[in-house]
Predict the structure.
Amino acid sequence: MQNKLQELTDKLYNEGLSKGKQEGEELLAKAKVQAEDIITKAQAEAERIVAAAQKQAEEIKTKTASDVKMAASQSIAATKKDIETLIVGKMTGEAVKKALSSADFVKELIKAVAEKFTTEGPVDLNLVLPESLKNDLEPFATKELARILGAGVEASFSKKIAGGFQIGPKDGGYFISFTEETFNQLISEYLRPATKKLLFG
């Protein structure tokens, strides 16, 4: 009886041990599968994060390069324009100022322009002249020019005009400007393309 009891105990023990070992192995295998799955998912997520970071870095690099290129291009264009303006200004500024400050030159210019107003008959004219040339131009404008044109000429003098003049029909509501500023603008427009080509090809 003792032997049978021992055999039964041993059998139950061995069966329990075998079953426990089998369950333990199954649990271990399942845990390994889960661990591998977690590792695979973690690696995939890490790769996704790295790829996203690389893409973002590439986009930032491209945008930065584009912004730098645009800024450089704008800076070069602005510098070229400044150089062009400086050279054209030097070429025209003093020469125009000198010419339009010469009473004799301004008289000839006024005569040539005024005659165009009177081609179809006498037209009373209004002249605005530089204050600095008043002594030289007032007798010419009010007497000699009126006699040449056979029309009335009203002359006024302004400190706002450094050189040159403004002219127009007395009651026409418009005038034509031949001042230092307008001459510089006009000449600059003609000189600018040639200067640009000469400087920058």
